């Protein structure tokens, strides 16, 4: 018996979620049905595809081999569907973008709102996570990252540079010793990432400028900026976030000026998908324009 595509979709969902219930939620079918479909596929292929462990449903060697082929088939079907959308028709369906919470909070909402205005039948989902998005598990259709991945079958496009500076409130600066040099920071309360939860070397700003203690830490940029806005300490802030936090003032601009970059990362198999290509182009253009607009405001 030849397996059908519906069963392969179920197989891919279980392989990515490592759980019948999670796969069922993704596919909107009950876990018992998911289990039956997997059993039917194993019978058709005459091979066990999963082993049950405390971590969940893990692929067997036969499952690993099938997973590669199933992903290729899925990418081909997505590309065919994307090609049918045409190059001028408004986008529709659902597209999910994964991003670190800084860009997810301060850039993507307004960029995606403009894309949505131009494509009213398109559903855009922003997945904000303080870690690297797993594209191989199809957590998202594409991801915005702060470094270019070097492993995996991925399409990587540099989108934009952005700048960061040290910031604090006027109130904090008035209540504490002057900050004229980097050495003066050692007498101040620093706000930054939780050191052992920095998921990308490009985010280790404080270490780059010689700060080895973080008194107030969070894995969220938004939390860090909220803390700084309350006048509780000094932190490194993206310039594009400063228009949203007018109480924060740049300091040591002649000594600390960091530049980082955003990259748009996609599945390599999606390069023939016209729908995703058009969305990626609109997203990249929107991010570049929004970074430039907000950074210009931060200079004013």
Automatic annotation (TrEMBL):
The keyword Ribonucleoprotein belongs to this UniProt entry's keyword annotation: no
Pfam families for the chain: HTH_1, LysR_substrate
The keyword Transferase appears for this protein: no
Keywords: DNA-binding, Transcription, Transcription regulation
Alphabetical list of PROSITE patterns matching this protein: HTH_LYSR (PS50931)
GO biological process per UniProt: DNA-templated transcription
Listed GO MF terms: DNA-binding transcription factor activity; sequence-specific DNA binding
Domain of life: Bacteria
Residue ranges of domain HTH lysR-type in the record: 3-60
Family: Belongs to the LysR transcriptional regulatory family.
Name of this protein: Transcriptional regulator, LysR family
Upper taxonomic lineage: Bacteria, Pseudomonadati, Pseudomonadota, Alphaproteobacteria, Rhodobacterales
């Amino acid at each position: 018996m030849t397996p059908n595509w519906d069963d392969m979709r179920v197989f891919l969902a279980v392989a990515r979620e490592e759980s019948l219930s999670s796969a069922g939620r993704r596919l909107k079918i009950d876990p018992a049905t998911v289990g039956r479909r997997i059993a039917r596929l194993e019978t058709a292929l005459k091979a066990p595809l999963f082993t049950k462990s405390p971590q969940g449903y893990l692929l067997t060697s036969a499952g690993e081999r099938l997973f590669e082929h199933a992903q290729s088939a899925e990418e081909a079907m997505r590309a065919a569907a994307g090609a049918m959308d045409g190059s001028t028709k408004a986008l529709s369906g659902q597209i999910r973008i994964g991003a670190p919470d800084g860009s997810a909070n301060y850039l993507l909402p307004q960029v995606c709102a403009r894309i949505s205005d131009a494509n009213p039948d398109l559903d855009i989902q922003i997945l904000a996570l303080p870690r690297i998005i797993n594209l191989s598990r199809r957590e998202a259709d594409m991801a915005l990252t702060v470094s270019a991945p070097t492993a995996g079958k991925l399409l990587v496009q540099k989108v934009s540079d952005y700048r960061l500076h040290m910031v604090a409130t006027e109130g904090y600066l008035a209540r504490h010793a002057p900050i004229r040099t980097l050495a003066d920071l050692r007498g101040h309360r620093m706000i930054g990432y939780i050191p052992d939860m920095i998921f990308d070397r490009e985010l280790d700003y404080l270490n780059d400028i010689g700060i080895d203690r973080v008194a107030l830490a969070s894995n969220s940029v938004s939390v860090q900026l909220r803390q700084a806005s309350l006048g509780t300490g000094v932190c490194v802030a993206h310039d594009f976030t400063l228009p949203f936090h007018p109480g924060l003032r740049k300091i040591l601009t002649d000594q600390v000026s960091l530049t980082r970059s955003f990259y748009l990362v996609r599945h390599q198999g999606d390069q023939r998908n016209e729908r995703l290509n058009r969305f990626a182009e609109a997203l990249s253009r929107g991010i570049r324009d929004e970074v430039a607009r907000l950074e210009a405001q931060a200079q004013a």
